[in-house]
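Table 4 source record.
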Amino acid sequence: RDAEELAYANGAFDRAMVDLRDRRNRLLAECDWTVLADSPITDKTDWETYRTNLRDITNGLSTVEDVNAVVFPTKPS
């Protein structure tokens, strides 16, 4: 039983990263339309920056605490 608990605890970071990437990917998918060539948005700079920040959100994370402290960027209006 102890080995199972240790294995579960050791996988905490991987599980946290999966959850973070899932949320990030959902947010990216929701705004894919904003950067398409036929998008009604003429100035895409804010959306491009937002999407870059989302893609980069996992950079430099090495602990569960790092993952839990992630603050998602604000979606442009």
